[in-house]
Write a structure and sequence with these properties.
By secondary structure, the protein is an alpha/beta fold. Helices cover 35% and strands 20% of the residues.
Length: 460
Amino acid sequence: MKLRMILAILLCKGLRLFSRLVHRGGTAMPGRWALKVCPNLLALLAKDVTSVAVTGTNGKTTSSRMIEEAVREAGIDCFANRSGANLISGITTEFVMNCTLGGKMKKHFAVIECDEAASRAVFRQLKPKTIVVTNVFRDQLDRYGEVTHTLGNIREGISGAPDAVLCLNADCSLTASLADDLPNPVVWYGLEKGAITQGARSELSDAAYCIRCKAEYDYDYITYGHLGGFRCPKCGYRRHAADVAVTAVSKQTALGTTISLRSSADGAEQTVQVNLPAVYNVYNAAGTWAACLQMGISEDVITRALATFQCGFGRLEHFDLGAQGTTMMLVKNPAGCNQVVDFLESMEGPFVLVACLNDRGADGTDISWIWDANFEKLEGMKDRMQHVYVSGDRAADLQIRMKYAGVPADIISVEHSYEKLVEICKAQEVPIYMMPTYTAMLELRQTVIKHCGGTDFWEG
């Protein structure tokens, strides 16, 4: 077994080196081949590493970055799969790149983002000390199926790590149900009633009916999607009280959010600055707070980390492109897209929108979700929205969707060339907001950084 492990490590390191020499990421492929040589390689390397894992539909990358920043701020030397390669192959690659040829880990703390379906294999080998579950939404129907299937994947994954402390989103009825049949200790986080302006009940819900008895939920308040103060009038299943509770969102700008947060650790309420806008990032911050407290990191350190951390690539990432800059916001499902549209609605002044839609494997080949996203809100922004450029493999579908949403046809243009698109953006005098799907984001971002600088996604 020792020989197989060493051979796998040598192969992985060699393939990573070759990938970088030819200017490719080498984030997942080396680990994929290493696991063929030694299938339990991750378990062998992870046994001496304390790790915190983050999974769920939306917010994995940003939450992981927040936690990593807090861990480093606390003076703990750690590593993380910052490239976003969150399948077992990419996670294994990251472990190998942080070990010696003999399999001895150089660092003994890891922050790992993990795909929901991959958690079934990863958590059994990784044995994380803490697991954050952000939320469960409908995503990539061709790969995940319905939300209950995604939830089942996460439940099976956690069952392989029965000693891990779970940090669960109390406002997500699906995520909260994990506590019903898993033995793990649980810490709850969420937004309290009145923390934000109530979301619209008419917004499409991915969990309108009780996961226990199938009766329709009543809500005391809604933050977005199906998140909020849910309760079942039939069986009594309801939102659990939050140990880490956001009691108010007092200020939101394009650069960040000011919140009031109460932790059951001392019951005191404090003001926290989150270095990102939008409600979904408030949830990410609360989940980070819960996880970091479990790791023994002080509240002062967490506060500093949330105020200074740098977001992940493509997640509200800012570029000096155009006279007033460009912000890139990854979208991949209706709930996330709706939050981006809500963010645009909250901004003041004119802007240009760039939307890119691909249907490749990493995006999800089923793009029907664009008809569930609330693009209709864009019609109310047409006086500020100077132009909309659509691009990507399915640009024509996106163009039609925008027209049906009420966006004037004369301000919608199709531009398939990312080079031309970036040249157009360079000439803009107003802020530019880009909302691409995953593979479109990787390609568009690569073109953007060629013009205005930045790091490759595997260096971010």
